[in-house]
Structure formats: structure tokens, C-alpha cells
Amino acid sequence: MSSPASSGPAGPHFEGQVGGYYLLALLAGSEARGLPGCAVDRVRLQGAPERYSLDDVIIHAHDPSGNAATLEIQVKRSIDFTPSDDVFAAVMAQVAQAVLESNFFDSRRQLAVATSQHSRQIDGAYQDVLTWARELGDAASFHRRLKLPKVANPSMRTFVLTFSAHLKANGAPYDDETVWKLLRRFQILVFDFTAKGSASEDLAKERAARVLSAGEEHKASELWRLLIERSIQIAASGGDRTREQLQREFADSFQFAALKRHHEALLRLEEFSRQALEDIETRVAGARLSRQTYVRQLWESLDKGRYIDIRGDAGVGKSGILRYFAEQLSIQSRVIVLSPNRTLVRGWAGMQQGLEFNGTCKELLSELSANGGGAIFVDNLDFFREDERPTVVDLLREAVAVPGVVVVTTARRTEDVLRSYDERR
Question: What are phi and psi of 379, to 5 degrees?
Fold first, then answer.
């Protein structure tokens, strides 16, 4: 086995950052990005000797019922998922190995590629494909929609055809059923560690500060740096760590805070948000409307700022666009969805009490953002009751101070809350 310093195009430092990110989640007792709802139990780095197919970072976790879940990640600093991309071909050779295992589809096992760069295709067409695979209940419906000329686009079809062709080339099943089932378990995780002013790094340091005891927060940057170094060291020998092992290794340098378990509160948040999304109708005459064009415009708008307001008259489909985007982001982590008559009242204090969340508003948003789900969706902003509006305002105020948090609203007219958020950001 080769070390990450000498293998693949990921580069040792970026691979160390991704590994360090999951080691930090382990220390914090947080959910695992890519496995929403699951707490991290153990992190293995360079798992090829143990026959893991995607072997750079392996997350062992459990859901609230105690059921085991695994996320296998291949770290590639640069990958474009096109037919001519040799990096994608190499990753798919490893994916094919997983599919060939007899019990692959019988376990809760997710596969992912971690990369450092957003792109229009990754954020748009490819994530759309992965969202469709999860939301459509059978392979026939998925492939039928993919063929519709005004619903799917050529980039989406090319991605699926390339995915299937690589499975075939590596001797794995590539029928429609297998491709659909596998896409439901495949994720593309973007960590912008290599970008100037990296939001991922800022969020890692924020989480590191919460892991440390009171008075030790100033050591957050040092803890993050050492976790990256430790990640590279562990990978060099193909090892793993539990939370207790990490704490013992850093005991001479850091004092850690008592573990805060937020899983129950996050489950309540997920339920509230899911119910709000389910109120949004996305079908006309039994057919679900396509929102890909507008969702791609949302991704492009995020290059310019973190606040997006979708305006339009009643019935034009504003809420449908919001729902589609929220469902896409919720694959990796939880999001917050607020809508009139479904919002906890009396500001953050009321929401904190309703969720039974043991922490501040900033801690909640930082936790969600660090897990890849830093998004607040506010539907029909101009129809919130007076007792609900303080909750929206409190969340938007805190969102300004948390790196990576995205706010998407729908409205018919300008509201004071929008102007307030614009001024503060």
C-alpha cells in the first residue's frame, strides 16, 4: 500500500484535510457528511488492505436506531466525470469492485468522491442525476425521465452513460436496475479547502473551537492543523481511530469539552423541514415538473453571493424550485425549511425550545454548514404571521456570521426582513 503522499492526484495535504475533517467530526460527536442522521463511530484512512473499494477515507457510523452505516470516500482533488477523464475511470474501477461483492446492496453502504472544486456540471447536471435516482422509486421511472428531451439534458445523459460504460468495462453489472440502484448510493462531496478564503476551513476551525473546553478556544486553529497532520500519519500506515483514541493522543496539548449530542434535536429539525417541503406541490396533472434549468441558475448565483430571493407572481413555480434545490442539498446533510404556519414561533428562543437544542443559533447553523447542509429555505416570505417572523429574522441574522450558510427565499414582494439581511451581509 502506498501512502497518500505518493498516490493519486488528490495530493497529500488535500487528502489530509478531508481525513482531518472527519476526524474532527468524530471528536465532536457530530453527524457524518454524506450520512445524514448518522453519528461517526470510527474513521479509517487508507483501507485497501481491509478490502474497501473506495479506500482513502472510510466512515463507520450508526443511525439513531443503532443500525450500522458506512461511507467509503475516494479523494480526488481534480475530477470532471467526463468520458475522457482517466481519474473518473480509475474511481469507477473501484466502484465496480464494490458492486461485484455479493452483499453490497444488502448493507447500508454509501460511496463518494471528495473533490476540491465546484463546477457547473458537478453542481448542476451530475447532482441532478443523483437527486433523481433517490427521489424516483424505480429504475424504469428514472431512465424514462432521463430520456425526455425537455426534462433531462445531454450532460445528464452523458454522465449516466459513462457511469454505465465504466461498470461494463470492469466486468460489473451495468443493466438499468443496477445503474439506478448504484447512483442512489453515490455522492459527489465538494470541500473547498484549496480555495482562497475557504469556507470549509473556516467551518472546521469553528467546529474545533466548540470541541475544546472553555478557555481553550484560541487553540482551535492549532487543533485543526494537527488533525490534518495526524490524518496523513494514520493514512501512511492504513490505520483508524475512535473518539477515545484521538482524545488520548491529544490529551497533553488540549482539554476537550463535554460531548454535546444533538442527534435528537436534528431529527426534530429534519421532521419539521420535511413536512414543510411536502406541503409544496410539484406535480401538475400527475406529472412532476422539471426544475433543472432554474436550479442550475441558483448554483450559478451562489458564485455571486449567499442570499438568493426567488420572485414571481402566484403559481409560477417559485416554491417548486425551492423544494427541488432543498431536496438536492439534503442528500448530504440536513437543511432548514421554514414556511408560513409551520414555523416555530417566538424567535430563536422558541425554535430552540421546540427542537430541544442544547446550544446557540450559531452553533446549530455551524453544525449544519460543517456537514455540508448549511442552507436556510424560507418559502412564501411575505405570508409569515407576526409571531413567526422573529424566528425568520433571528436565523437570517445569525446566518450572516456563519461561513457557507446559504439563504434561499421565495416572495411576491419586498419585505423588511430581506432589507435587514442584505444590510447585515
Answer: -95, 140
Interatomic CA distance for residues 212 and 219, integer angstroms: 8
Tell me how far apart the alpha carbons of residues 249 and 259 are, in angstroms, rounded to a whole number: 17
pLDDT, tens digit (0-9, with 9 covering 90-100), for 111-170: 999 999 877 778 788 988 999 999 898 999 999 999 998 889 999 999 999 999 999 999
Answer whether residue 229 is part of any domain.
no
Furthest CA-CA distance within the chain: 65
Q: What angle do CA 139, 141, 145 make, to 5 degrees?
A: 120
pLDDT for 291 beyond 70: no
What CATH number is attached to the domain comprising 389?
Answer: 3.40.50
pLDDT average, residue stretch 205-229: 93
Cβ neighbours for 114, distance < 8 A, ≥ 6 positions apart: 18, 56, 57, 73, 74, 75, 76, 189, 190, 191
Domain that holds residue 321: 263-424
Half-sphere exposure for 336 (CA within 13 Å, toward CB): 27
The burial class, CB within 10 Å (0-12 / 13-18 / 19+), for 344 is: buried
**Among 131, 119, 422, residue whose Cα is nearest residue 300:** 119
Residue 310, in any domain of the structure: yes
- Alpha carbons within 13 angstroms on the beta-carbon side of residue 329 total 32
For strand 35-45 and strand 31-32, is the pairing parallel, antiparallel, or unpaired? antiparallel
Lowest mean pLDDT segment, chosen from 1-5, 31-35, 137-141, 292-296: 1-5
Q: What angle do CA 197, 201, 203 make, to 5 degrees?
A: 110
Q: What is the dihedral of CA 193, 194, 196, 201, to 10 degrees?
A: 20
Q: How many domains does the chain have?
A: 1
Is 298 among the domain residues?
A: yes
pTM of the predicted model, to two decimals?
0.78
